Amino acid sequence: MINKDKGNIHFIGVGGISMSALAEILLDKGYHVSGSDRGYSPIITALEEKGLIFCGPQKADNISDDTVLAVYTVAVKENNPELMAARSKGITVIPRSRLLGDIMSEYRYPIAVSGTHGKTTTTSMLAYIFKHADLDPTIIVGGELDLLDKKTLCLGKGDYLLAEACEYYRSFLDFKPYCATILNIEPDHLDYYKDKEDFQSAFVAFSDNILDGGWLIACADDEDMHKIIEHTKAKVITYAIKNPADVTARDISFDNGYPVFTLVIHGKKIGTVRLSVTGQHNVLNALAALANAYVLQLDMDKAIESLSLFKGAIRRFEYKFELNGAKVYDDYAHHPTEVAATVQAASKLPHGKLFCVFQPHTYSRAKKFLNKFATAFDGVDEVIIADIYAAREPLDPAIPTSLIAEKICENGVHATAISGNSTISQYLRANVQKGDLVVIMGAGDIFKIYDILR
User: Fold this and answer.
1) What is the rounded CA–CA span in Å between residue 432 and residue 453?
2) Is 322 assigned a catalytic role?
3) Shared-domain flag, residues 374 and 446
4) Most buried of 51, 142, 219, 337 (most Cβ within 10 A)?
5) Domain shared by 119 and 233, yes or no
6) What are the tens digits of pLDDT across the range 77-106?
7) What CATH number is associated with residue 45?
8) Could you report the per-residue pLDDT of 305-354, keeping only the tens digit for each?
9) Rounded to two decimals, what is the model's pTM?
């Protein structure tokens, strides 16, 4: 980290969840921090109260003469005026992942949770475990938590930092964790990675970054995880439901839709775990969190107890309200494996008909996983495909939403492509009945539909 008295640190796009968290950490440490974004938001207002100098929309003049470091995200393009201005002035420019890696290095036990699916939920479970153990951790999570007063950051004074480790653009290679969890390595972000092997090579490299004496916590149910386990020089503890592992769940049952299981570590029964989030995938997430607690020698009874208090992060199968007497849930799922897991979790809850509204995220993902999306909705009564959220990509007319709906129908599930949140809302109001269950999924802006549905 730079000397806090040397000058100003500027955040290009300070209003995002990840950037705002890092800005708040630096402000708390006494750094001079400025930032830009499209406009005001409650996040920026809160940062201003802590000392942030907000510069408004991004422009070259925002890079002041006393700026010594500029921080950006992968979403920032090379022609960004602030990025160009910083470089022209010879100012050090780093991605947010590099800054987070520097911050993590200041803690005795940096803990990073990686994987294609489940990072936010598992990190959130760990947050509950560490807070319940009174360890005063610093927590950086990708979703809002009730535990953190609906924030994504908790500034602690203890030896532990918990953070998600995103594989996109190999960002997590800037981290050097003591405990590195790899939940799964199913290929994604194939707009950046060349193929499956390229994607998985990033996780192999991530395992090389584990600190001496540290731990790899690996899911043995992932068919390719052995590549990483065989490669790493770190200590390894595995967890699984289906395959042999150090940490396992036995006698899994569902109480009113919520998992109950016996936690077994190295063949010894530790206790009975009762989760307050549904879905078998959350049994795996819980095992990952409990494996971290075990290798860090935490009180396992307290760890088990804390998981019963966790009711999910915002946008992770989050209950919203009732529509015509039907329960409506919100979920961030955007990969076919995540969609299938959410559908499976929903099916465990009492319901009449099961409706799913799905907004595909990026054309490249919709194209690459078209056939997998076709089978991800098994058990759903009606699927509605919303407009594709392009995110960083240009329009691709080769992947119309009607094609996705058609493929789902070929798999025996009724699906319809409907454009616009207002039209989708009208359809739901006309068709959903008391006792039904509605799940609205996507990583884009589909959440805006709730303001119309309420």
Assistant:
1) 12
2) no
3) yes
4) 219
5) yes
6) 899 999 999 999 999 999 999 999 999 999
7) 3.40.50.720
8) 999 999 876 777 888 999 999 999 998 888 888 888 889 888 888 899 99
9) 0.82
